[in-house]
Model the fold of this input.
Amino acid sequence: MLTIKTVFEETTEVNRSKFIAHLVPHHRFEADRRRLHTQHPKASHIVTAFRYLNDYDQVVEAGSDDGEPRGCAGLPVLNVLRGAALIDSAILIVRYFGGIKLGTGGMVRAYTLAAQNVLSGAEMHNYQKMIGKQFTSDYSSVQKLTYLLGQSKITEVQREFLADRVLWDITADQLSLDDFTRRAGRLILDTHTTNKGV
Done:
């Protein structure tokens, strides 16, 4: 399976209709859908499709036609995601009608092409399940732990400074977490681990 780590955008024109495709990590899907509705109030449709793994490693997927004829938009876009073996990813396609009706077959081809075009410019990575780990430390260990996180190539780090200790919330793949835990040793106090599914 493959995934993406950043946003990609590509515009495809078919018979004067404009299809602006956005390929985004799944965790951005809802926020980007709201943003696109705000940014494109005159768009005819905003078609979407997504695939992600839930906490039980099951694929959850869906597509939305957003008013286009049923099965002519969301499903073809979803099929492009499936064909590319992409996970934890979503495609949102903003359509501006160009005045020429495409017909149902033409719409399937146009939405498929728009989805394929945005994928063709995307940088894809092998999927690795990300795991969230919370732990606490003493204030005196902050600098050393920050250094060790960098050594383990863990970049998703949040800290909260409490009254008597520091609460850390990090996200990484299992190998990076194991490497960090080994390096940090007794600097880590109590811990809690969760699957993030990203």
